[in-house]
Amino acid sequence: MSNHSDVPVTPVEAYEPPYYVAVFTTVRTQDQSGYSETAAHMEELVKDVPGFLGMDHAQTPGGLGITVGYFRDADALTEWRGNAEHRAAQDRGRAQWYESYTLHVAKVERSHGFVRAMVPQGPTAG
After folding, report:
1. Is there a contact between 12 and 70 (Cβ–Cβ < 8 Å)?
2. CA distance 22 to 107
3. Residue 67 burial by Cβ neighbours in a 10 Å radius (0-12, 13-18, 19+)
4. What is the pLDDT averaged over residues 44-51?
5. Which of 3, 71, 88, 125 could lock 77 by a disulfide, CB 3.0 to 4.6 Å apart?
6. Distance between CA 119 and CA 41 in Å, rounded?
7. Considering just the CA atoms, what is the radius of gyration of the chain in Å?
8. pTM of the entire structure?
C-alpha cells in the first residue's frame, strides 16, 4: 500500500479473461500501528504467488479503503488465501486495524482498457 508521489498512477492492465479478482473493501479503526509495514510486506509477498497479476488500491477521504487483487486462476487465489503470513495479517487486521470489511471474489469474463496517447507539447508563447 505504498504511496510514492514520484511513481505514476496507473491501474492494473486489462488481461485476457477469464481471470479472478478479489475486492477487499475496508473501514479502518483509529489504531493503525504496524499497518503500513504489514501492508507493504503483503504487497511484496503476494508478488511471489504464481498467477498473481497485480493490485490496485484506493482510499476515499471518508475512510473507505478498496484493494483489488488480480489473479490468473482460482489456484493462485487459493494459494494467496492459504499463505501463513497473509493469514496472520488477516487475524491482526480483525483484532486491530479494521472496523469492518467485505471481500468479494469474482471471475472476470470481460476486460478492456484505455490509455490516452501522449501529445507532445511545443514551446509556449510568452
Report:
1. yes
2. 9
3. buried
4. 98
5. 71
6. 37
7. 17
8. 0.85
